[in-house]
Amino acid sequence: MTRGVERMGATVSEAFFEPVVRLGVTGLSRSGKTVFITSLVANLLDRGRMPGLTAAAEGAIRTAYLQPQPDDTVPRFDYEAHLAALTGPTPRWPAGTRSVSELRLSLRVQPGGLLGGIQGPRTVHLDIVDYPGEWLLDLSLLDMAYRDWSEQTLSRAEERVEAKDFLAALVAADPAARHEEPAARALSDAFTDYLHRAREAGYSDCTPGRFLLPGEMAGSPALTFAPLPAGDSARGSLAREFERRYEAYKREVVKPFFREHFARIDRQVVLVDVLGAIHAGPKAVEDLRQAMADILGAFRPGRNRWLSRILLGRRVERILFAATKADHLHHRQHGRLTAIMDALLADARRRADFAGARTGAMSIAALRATTEDTVEHQGRTLDVVRGTLEGSGRNAAFYPGALPEDPARLLSPAREGAERWLDADYEVMSFAPAPLSLRPGEGPPHIRLDRAAEFLIGDRLR
Ligand SMILES: Nc1nc2c(ncn2[C@@H]2O[C@H](COP(=O)(O)OP(=O)(O)O)[C@@H](O)[C@H]2O)c(=O)[nH]1
Ligand SMILES: [Mg+2]
């Protein structure tokens, strides 16, 4: 009740005084969230490379500046450190981040036209919230009892070679035996280890999400359990204790995240490393497709009763799906990348569209690390990208392979469980960010970051 009143108070004052847009940025680990936010903020502060953002192109955004964020207990997104890494004399990718963080960028906006003259300038606060996509996958746990979750997780594990050691440890364990912490921990460690390996192998669905990104909760009982085969679970048994911890995980980890962060988001960008999954192979692509459907489920009103109650009818108004790292491809292939992502999300998007959220799909590079070139190779003309290789520091031309025009050429074998791509090989390279010499008023180079911003927040800046 109190929450409802507080929220109403906030909404009323925001509507009359300074509007706040909460932009959620999510995606699975390594999908590019940190780079996206850093480059977006830099390009909103210096808008020379943002012609696709109407309010920037028309000069409606007068100034932009960083402000203290409104939430005192959420870590601040370390914009300055990330920007320094990306734009220093020897540019590097920022270090990985593992939990939620937030940053407030305020924009002074003076709309043009008739209304502008009457209204005068106003301030729009953009609260950017960075959170792991892995945490969204946990929503499905709320509907599942320990027994169901175990069954699903174990059947998935049996399909993956990465689970070999964990499954062996499971055979050796006795769920009905008295719970002893060392045995519980060993099993949970083996399970966590499996999740990490599966993630590294390119699998997306590796719940519980917090096992991969535990943050300050590492080692706590709510993160020390594993799925067990169905069977007796007498009081005091390992099975009973794991079930209790699973419920604690839902209550103490999953629900607070949805209540405190997810429920307050207005606009959402979901970053997807489509190229990375294609490179990892058909199984990774199929897994990504399923994970995306689950992730999108969180944005579907009515998907979960508990969540619907928390949301109080609020919903995310716009969701952008962005295939990241498009600078690995020559722009002639960007359309194909977008088509693949579109197809990957087709089922899930249809349902979300139905629920009234506006969705869009794009291929972007938050930070362009390459330039384009055309080279002759064995009598063929190839559209390549050129960049500095990470590690060796060598400059190299790179041809990732030709993406098919018809997405089904990738998605069908993926659905059918193919082991590898038949017609082609898809490579990815690790390019280091290029050294920059920015002119005043220019942010870091990108691909379609301005169009992404227009889709996400453009209407709120007019
Ligand atoms: N070439 C290129 N690589 C990118 C881009 N964005 C992210 N990456 C790569 O993806 C990695 C993970 O990005 P990061 O933003 O840390 O992902 P996060 O885990 O989702 O926050 C980076 O270290 C880069 O190697 C991009 O725009 N272009
Ligand atoms: Mg990050």
- Going across the major beta sheet, what is the strand order? 2-3-4-1-5-6-7
Strand/helix succession = HEHHEHEHEHHHHHHEHHHEHHEEEEHH
The average pLDDT is: 89
The rounded distance between the terminal residues' Cα atoms is 34 Å
With helices defined by DSSP (H or I, 4 residues minimum), what is the helix count? 18
- The count of DSSP E runs of length 2 or more, i.e. the number of strands, is 10
Can you summarize the main beta sheet?
7 strands, mixed
State the helical fraction. 40-55%
Q: Can you list the ligands bound to this structure?
A: guanosine-5'-diphosphate, magnesium ion
State the secondary-structure class: alpha/beta
Q: Which ranges are low-confidence, i.e. pLDDT below 50, for 5 or more consecutive residues?
A: 1-15
Principal-axes shape call: globular
Radius of gyration: 23 Å
The proportion of strand residues reads: 15-25%
Written description of the protein model:
It is a single chain. With 462 residues, this protein is an alpha/beta fold. The protein has a 7-stranded mixed beta sheet, sandwiched between helices. The protein contains 18 helices and 10 strands. The protein binds guanosine-5'-diphosphate and magnesium ion (MG). The site of guanosine-5'-diphosphate has 21 residues, from helix 2. Magnesium ion (MG) binds next to helix 2.
